[in-house]
Structures are given as C-alpha cells and as structure tokens.
C-alpha cells in the first residue's frame, strides 16, 4: 500500500484521504481522474452488503426506509437512530441507537463501532417548524449536516442527504422546476437544503465524496403524524376524512404542489443509493410523481367518502412558503440516468391512503367515519 494512504471499508482507496495527504506531483490528478471518470460502466463487481446508519430515523421517512433496506440487506445491517425513545414495535424490528447529529464524537464512535458504509441523514427541522425556531433549525440543519459530511469523507461513506421542494424560491422556474436553475429559497429549511446540496457536490468534485441527494416532493404517509411541513395537509386530510369528516386546510384550494406516496419515496431512495456511480450525471436530482391542489385531492377523496367537508383557512406563513415553491418537478434526468419511475398517481394514492388510515384507526380502536 502506498505510504500515508488510508483504506476505506469497501477495500478501495478513499479519495478524501488521498486528497488530504497526497502531495506528490502528478499522482493525485491521475487517480482522481480515474475515480471520477464518466466513462460507460464496465462489468459490475458485486458490492459488499452495506452497513447502513439512518439519522433522524423516527421522523416520517426513517422507519419505512429501514424496513425496505432490512428486507434486502438483513435487519442487523440497518441501524436506526434518533434522540427520542422509539415505540416498542420499532425497537423490536431491528437495531436502534441513540444518536445526536450535533455530537460529533459520539457519531464518529457509532460509525466506527458499527462499521457503517452507508449513511442516510434524515435529521432536520422542517419548513414551518424551522421558521418558528430559526436558531435551532440552523444548528440542526447546518451544523449537524457539517458533522455528517466530515464523517462521511473521513470514513469513505456513501452519503445520502435528502433535499426538498423547499430548496426552490420565488425566482425559480415553477412549472416545471428543472434540476439546475436559480433557487434562492426564503426559509431557513430551504436555505439549509441548498447549502447541503452545494457542500455535498463540492466535496464530491474536490475530494471524491460519494454524495447523493434527492429533492423530495411533499411525501404522503399513513405511518407518521404530520411533522410541521407545508405539505402536511395532504396527510391530515385523510385522517380527518375518516374521523370527523371535516378538514380545515391551511392553504388555498388552488395551491398546486408536487406530491409523492411514501413507498415511491423509499423506493427512489434505495434505487438511487444502489445505482452505479458511473451512471450519475448529477449529485442532486428531482424526483416527481404527481402534482395536485387541496381541492383536487378532496374531490378524489369524495369519490370514496362523499360527506367530506373542507374549510379553507389559509395560514399566512405556510401559504407564503407554498407560493414560493414549484408546482411541478422536472425529473427527466433521474428517469434517464438511473431509471426512476413512480408507481402511484393521485387515484392510486387516495385509494391506498384511505384503506391504510381506516385499517390503522380500527387497529388502534378509534371510530371510523
């Protein structure tokens, strides 16, 4: 082995390590050009089974992603983490550890002790909650991100950091929003996500960090309660339809936003993480599934529950945020580069959500309208 060069867990030279310690004239550019080559993929060597750590794992996305990854790679190879106590069914379904993304030393110990090779960074304060506590959002969304970026580079990890519809701003193209355009968001959540996109891309190009990022639309799921996002009405309306039959919407009825069923979101994340690096023309991709307004989803629900009543009482903070976001995503590059294709449209989403929410309420002993 060449002197001064660390070896990463997958058995390859860590490009980040090389870039920091190798100053010999002529050697670094040759190796970097080989590793960053965009040539067509040659024969694929099977990768080792990844060891995955998911931060912020008790939010809307972590538990479902862990379930999908555990089916493919084994429960013992996917570790959920958070700063909250998990419910019993989560704790019994696979490894869970306490992890605060602001505690760099403890996070490093987890990565080393559990031999982590993939890191999925879900810890963040969402849009509306972030606006109510900017200082905390800055700390979690930016300082926590920097800890994760540094540790991924140091330990040669494949790092996934989600971005969002909120990474765009009022000066961005809205219908559709392409992968590459002016962004300039006006929320601390959006600003922190653009910062993450650019830092990850910078570290990829300068040091070879295997950074991967997807801009998620509004994600609709039955398994978690709304967590302070601007698109959360599209989850709450199903619970209200089956409980009281009345939903109070904090957006105008004509507010169109991109949305996605959570199973499509999880599948896109896994497929992107599994995609060979030589297929990727970008480090941050849009993914799209459907786009609808509150009135359109209400009309689709009324095909199943005609009694649903919706009252519109726009909240100035969330409405302003929504008005600055795109109404559709252009995900042409994701479809071309790694074969992204959603399974759920609006009709399928509504049918599935009504069934899932109804079943959940029955199991929990709540009445169903």
From TrEMBL:
Lineage start: Eukaryota, Metazoa, Chordata, Craniata, Vertebrata
- Enzyme class at the top of the EC tree: oxidoreductase
Gene Ontology molecular functions? L-threonine 3-dehydrogenase activity
- Kindly give the Gene3D superfamilies that the UniProt entry links to this protein: NAD(P)-binding Rossmann-like Domain
Q: Give the record's keywords alphabetically.
A: Signal
Q: By what name is this protein known?
A: L-threonine 3-dehydrogenase, mitochondrial
Tell me which species this is from.
Answer: Nothobranchius furzeri
Kindly list the biological process annotations in GO that this record carries.
L-threonine catabolic process
* Residue span, NAD-dependent epimerase/dehydratase domain: 52-287
Signal peptide residue numbers: 1-19
Q: Which InterPro entries match?
A: Epimerase_deHydtase (IPR001509), NAD(P)-bd_dom_sf (IPR036291), NAD(P)_epim/dehydratase (IPR051225)
EC number annotated for this UniProt entry? 1.1.1.103
Functional note: Catalyzes the NAD(+)-dependent oxidation of L-threonine to 2-amino-3-ketobutyrate, mediating L-threonine catabolism.
Q: Which family does it belong to?
A: Belongs to the NAD(P)-dependent epimerase/dehydratase family.
The reactions it catalyses are:
L-threonine + NAD(+) = (2S)-2-amino-3-oxobutanoate + NADH + H(+)
Which pathway features in its UniProt record?
A: Amino-acid degradation; L-threonine degradation via oxydo-reductase pathway; glycine from L-threonine: step 1/2
């Amino acid at each position: 082995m060449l002197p001064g060069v660390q070896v990463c867990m997958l058995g390859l030279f860590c490009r980040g390590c090389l870039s920091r310690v190798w100053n010999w004239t002529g050697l670094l550019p040759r190796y970097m050009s080989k590793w960053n080559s965009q040539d067509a993929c040659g024969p694929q060597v099977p990768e080792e089974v990844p060891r995955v750590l998911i931060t912020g794992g008790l939010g809307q996305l972590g538990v479902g992603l862990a379930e999908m990854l555990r089916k493919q790679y084994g429960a013992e190879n996917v570790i959920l983490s958070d700063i909250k106590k998990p419910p019993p069914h989560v704790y019994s379904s696979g490894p869970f550890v306490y992890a605060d993304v602001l505690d760099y030393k403890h996070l490093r110990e987890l990565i080393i002790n559990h031999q982590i090779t993939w890191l999925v960074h879900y810890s963040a304060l969402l849009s509306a909650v972030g606006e109510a506590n900017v200082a905390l959002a800055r700390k979690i969304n930016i300082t926590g991100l920097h800890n994760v970026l540094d540790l991924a580079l140091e330990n040669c990890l494949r790092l996934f950091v989600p971005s969002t519809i909120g990474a765009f701003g009022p000066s961005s193209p809205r219908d559709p929003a392409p992968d590459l355009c002016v962004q300039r968001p006006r929320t601390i959540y959006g600003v922190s996500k653009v910062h993450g996109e650019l830092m990850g891309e910078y570290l990829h190009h300068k040091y070879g960090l295997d950074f991967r990022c997807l801009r998620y639309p509004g994600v609709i799921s039955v398994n978690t309660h709304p967590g302070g996002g601007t698109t959360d009405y599209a989850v709450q309306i199903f619970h209200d339809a089956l409980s009281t039959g009345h939903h109070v919407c904090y957006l105008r009825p004509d507010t169109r936003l991109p949305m996605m069923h959570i199973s499509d979101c999880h599948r896109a994340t896994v497929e992107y993480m599994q995609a060979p690096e030589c297929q990727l023309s970008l480090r941050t991709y849009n993914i799209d599934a459907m786009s609808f307004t509150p009135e359109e989803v209400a009309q689709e629900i009324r095909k199943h529950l005609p009694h649903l009543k919706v009252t519109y009482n726009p909240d100035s903070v969330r409405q302003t945020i929504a008005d600055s976001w795109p109404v559709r995503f252009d995900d042409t590059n994701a479809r071309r580069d790694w074969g992204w294709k959603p399974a759920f449209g609006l009709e399928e989403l509504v049918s599935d959500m009504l069934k899932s929410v109804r079943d959940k309420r029955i199991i929990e002993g709540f009445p169903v309208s």
